[in-house]
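Recap from last week: sequence in, structure out.
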Amino acid sequence: MLLSRISTSSLFTLLYLWTIFLTVLPLPLPTGDNNAGNIDNAAPVFFGPPQPPILIQIAIANKDTPKEHAFIAVGDTLLHAVYPTNTDHTQLIPEKEDMSTKAAMEAYRLGMKTIGEAKFGSKFEEGKVIEELLKIKLPPIAENGNCWDFIMIVLKKMKKDGRIVGDADSVLEKYKDIYEERKQARMKRVSVSQ
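Predicted structure tokens:
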């Protein structure tokens, strides 16, 4: 009786293994050349969901004073153009503020105006784009190379690269309106002081 139980259980085990083997056997084995010569059929590789759009904001420090200065906030990154140290001060360079946009708003009492949204696939991609923006070479200050012009250059580059969500031209127009408003305020301030 014990022998028949062992034989029966062995028989069922053997039958089970053969069933699995016969089920898997007809499946095609991967050869690695299924897409050879046709890369267009390859599925894109994603490392998670795309990052939601982030705000593009214009910030103004020392508004209505001779030291008025403009920043562009791309998400939580604040960029502006500043005088480099140890130079003749004829050309500004792009700089990333060390603190977050929110912290800078409080520290510098920045007035913020949202003009649009930007899109990036990931935080890593956003960082790479910010690095590119910091490499922008500005013209001399006398030739439209001030902090306001830096922002326009950044926005035009983001438009060209397809980073602006929605109508990029309307984002540029919103910035031009702010630029003209501040230009008129500066001119008014200068004429009053003379």
